[in-house]
Amino acid sequence: MPLQDQLDAITANTRKLVQADRLAISEQATADLFNSGIEDRILPVGAQAPSFSLQDALTGKLVRSSDLLPLGPLVINFFRGRWCPYCVTELEAWRDLQPDVRRRGALFVAISPQTTRQNDFTLQQHGLPFPLLSDPGAAVAAQFGLAYTVPEPQRHYYQSILINIPFNNAGLSYHNATEASWRLTLPAVFVINQDNIIAFAEAHADFRVRPEPTEVLAALDTLV
């Protein structure tokens, strides 16, 4: 089943379960994010990819893009957090496609603003075979043009459905949350060739829409 069909099923189920007034807040926040023009600021194909050095959930060690690229092209998945059913569905799709990624000589990493501990929970719960890297304050995501701060109305929405983003991102409560702990990333996928040039880039302000893995794999095929 295409990934987007799986995500559309989550959306249909959510609309059955969540009250209309709450859904309206999320819908408005998504529209506002799109209208901010953030999609126009995403690093495009042909741009130099920012380098990164981020902590891996499994080993606790720093993973450097400069160490990965000599080994093969790099697929980078930016995701919001383990609390997002769209994100974990996407990660599970990529879990099942790892043999296809490796056959193309590429490496896959996933990056989120959540803490290493939360990334480790994600890794273990969903049996993920690739590195999950912690990006505090979505700093690396910002270099790719993906980061934004959750607006006040949407913060109350997340609280109402018991999603504690400051805790997930920084181990903080709602009462002592910092602006950095409210930073998120647009879900996105980039393919970086071994010259550190972006060969595929796709991100959406609407978190319910994700790059189709078949298109990413096709982009890898062009690098062979």
Layout: helices, strands, pairs:
Elements: H1 3-17, H2 20-35, E1 53-56, E2 62-64, H3 65-68, E3 74-78, H4 85-96, H5 98-103, E4 107-112, H6 116-126, E5 132-134, H7 139-143, E6 147-149, H8 152-160, H9 165-170, E7 183-185, E8 188-192, E9 198-203, H10 213-221
Parallel strand pairs: 3-4, 4-5
Antiparallel strand pairs: 1-2, 1-5, 3-8, 6-7, 8-9
Helix pairs in contact: 1-4, 2-8
Task: Describe it.
It is a single chain. The protein has 224 residues and is of the alpha+beta class. It has a single domain, classed as Glutaredoxin (3-Layer(aba) Sandwich), CATH 3.40.30. Helix content is 42%, strand content 17%. The strands form 2 sheets. A 7-stranded mixed β-sheet has the order 2-1-5-4-3-8-9. A two-stranded antiparallel sheet has the order 6-7. It is globular. The mean pLDDT is 96.
CATH topology: Glutaredoxin
- Extended strand count: 9
Compute the CA-based radius of gyration.
Answer: 17 Å
SS-derived structural category = alpha+beta
Which homologous superfamily in CATH is the superfamily? Glutaredoxin
Which CATH architecture would you pick? 3-Layer(aba) Sandwich
Mean pLDDT: 96
Regarding quaternary structure, how should these chains be classified?
Answer: single chain
Spans of 5+ residues with little confidence (pLDDT < 50)?
none
What is the level 1 CATH name?
Alpha Beta
Q: State the helicity in percent bands.
A: 40-55%
Order of strands across the main sheet: 2-1-5-4-3-8-9
Integer tally of domains: 1
Shape: globular
Largest pleated sheet:
7 strands, mixed
Percent strand equals 15-25%
Report how far the terminal alpha carbons are from each other: 26 Å
What is the H/E order? HHEEHEHHEHEHEHHEEEH
